[in-house]
Amino acid sequence: VQLVESGGGLVQPGGSLRLSCAASGFTFSAYGMSWYRQTPGKERELVAAISGGSGDSTQYADSVKGRFTIFRDNAKNTVYLQMNRLTPEDTAQYYCARTIGDYWGLGTQVTVSS
């Protein structure tokens, strides 16, 4: 199993980023996927999760509801996190995980700053 995140970077407050997580080594469509984030000194927190198959079911942390969208493309074995109206509080290392964390990527850094 391999999960590789990309798309992080530096963005101004109010801006947008789209994170991608390319998956390999398993039947991607059969598994739910999730995004977590972590800042130094804090526990890793669940940001968003999506069910397997067509991804009809999603869930979000209260802090990102209405701003972030998780979606998947099973043809590309990729799960995405569209992040809009970013704030400095969204600054963190973002991780992709299979289901709710049996496998993890190495993460991608998102920094929101003017």
What is the strand and helix layout of this fold?
Elements (H helix, E strand, L loop, with lengths): L1 E5 L2 E3 L5 E8 L8 E6 L6 E6 L7 E3 L7 E6 L4 E6 L8 E7 L4 E2 L3 E5 L2
Parallel strand pairs: 2-11
Antiparallel strand pairs: 1-3, 3-8, 4-5, 4-9, 5-6, 7-8, 9-10, 9-11
Describe the structure.
By secondary structure, the protein is an all-beta fold. 0% of the residues lie in helices and 50% in strands. The chain has strands spanning 2-6, 9-11, 17-24, 33-38, 45-50, 58-60, 68-73, 78-83, 92-98, 103-104, 108-112. The strands form two sheets. Strands 2, 4, 5, 6, 9, 10 and 11 form a seven-stranded mixed beta sheet that branches. Strand 9 (92-98) and strand 10 (103-104) form a beta hairpin. The radius of gyration is 13 Å and the shape is globular. The mean pLDDT is 97.
Question: Quick summary of this structure?
Answer:
It contains no helices and eleven strands. It is mainly β and 114 residues long.
